[in-house]
Amino acid sequence: MARITISDLGYTPGQLSAGPKNSILDVKGVHVGQVTIGEDGEDVRKGVTVILPRNPDDIYIPCYAGMHTLNGNGEVSGSYQIKDWGFTNTPIALTNSCSFGIAFHSVWQWTLQRAKEKGISLDDLSHNYGTPIVGETADWHLNDVYQSTLKEENIMEAFKNALTQEAVLEGQHGGGAGMTCHMFPGGTGTSSRVVKESKDGEKEYTVGVLVQTNYGHNYDLQIAGVPIGKLLLNEQKEAAANVSTGKADDGSIVIILITDAPMLPHQLNRLARHCAVGLAQVGGHGIGRNFSGDIILALSTANKTNERVAVPQVMGVGPVEVNQIEILKNESVDTMFRAASEATEEAILNSMVAGRDGRTGYQGLHLPGLPIDRVKELLAKHRVVV
Questions:
Q1: pTM > 0.85
Q2: Which residues, including other chains, have CB under 8 Å from residue 340's CB and lie 6 or more apart?
Q3: Which of 382, 12, 73, 45 is nearest to 252 (CA)?
Q4: CB 52 within 8 A of CB 162
Q5: pLDDT tens track for 275-294
């Protein structure tokens, strides 16, 4: 199925241009691999998305990192390392809640196996230690959760796919399988934005975002400022009241941002917060609900530091050693904020557009897809273009 994005419906969020793929893969060195198990109409469709922020051979090189949690009923592992060290140096895996444990285990197994294949000693590996980053969302609406746990070989296959996969499969693919967004089939979505380093634009930086959407009610959905969710409900004459709440209804969203702009942890924390601005552009006042886990991770691949000291400590004392780094000027960070917000908004919308064919899941439950033709008409009619 050819890729259709929200831009094909007549709306492109923001002012900045997307990269050539309009994907997190526009960031040089980033690899994504996905595996999806199950078909539409079956009781469970599950999967995993693996993200390698750097080339697999360079995965141990730290990426400065920052995080933001809008509401915390969810999990992204590795957060304590990021808070203390300010960087991460492991692959990232996104999957469903019940597969969180096996995904964490499998990231470790891939790391150990690759070290053995590359002849990396355990001593070197211990200096390159990093806590695996695994994010999860709960696929309790469309899937039989008793069957949703993946196997180790599924995650290993995703790692293998990451070496050759040229495009992110959106919607009900990878970790996004079984997920919903504003009560439409959602799941995996991606987008990117390009920013110029200088006035003449000789050098560019890319902000790439990949989301795993599984949140939101239909009545809160807005696109380009148009209350699309309420308009669709009015046409269907469906009542938006008396909607049950809980994890299955409120869901979660995990947002992964990677940029090749030279940013440090304090700046990346701020960049992660501005992804939530893009989330609010779609979900309005309905984001960050009590049962939702809205967790955002932002990484920079620009600086390639060596955190291992050349002179070992003696009785706990050794010389202080330093790295030479670049850092974005504080007064130029606003454009990066805008890029983060725009790419996040579009990635979320793209996850729903990709689910336009609908999904039939557990016990025959059918969830219609976002009616893109009607949405295009409503945007043309109600959107204010200045």
A1: yes
A2: 193, 207, 209, 257, 271, 272, 274, 275, 277, 278, 298
A3: 73
A4: yes
A5: 999 999 999 999 999 999 99
Q: Which amino acid is at 131?
A: T
Place of tokens 């979900």: 283
CB atoms within 10 A of CB 71: 18
Tokens for 385, please give them: 């273009």
User: What residues contact 148, with CB distance under 8 A and at least 6 apart?
Assistant: 44, 46, 96, 98, 99, 139, 178
Strands, E assignment, the chain: 31-37, 46-52, 63-72, 87-88, 92-96, 133-137, 180-181, 184-185, 188-196, 204-215, 251-259, 293-300, 359-360, 366-367
- CA-based end-to-end distance of the chain: 34
Residue 282 sits at φ, ψ, to 5 deg, of -100, -45
Helix H segments across 38-166? Answer: 79-85, 100-117, 122-127, 152-162
Question: Distance between CA 11 and CA 291 in Å, rounded?
Answer: 30
Q: Which residues are catalytic?
A: 252, 292, 294
Q: Are 350 and 375 spatial neighbours (Cβ–Cβ below 8 Å)?
A: no
Q: In this predicted model, what pLDDT tens digit does every residue of 167-204 receive, in sequence order? A: 999 999 999 999 999 999 999 999 999 999 876 768 99
Q: pLDDT tens, 308-358?
A: 999 989 999 999 999 999 999 999 999 999 999 999 999 999 999 999 999
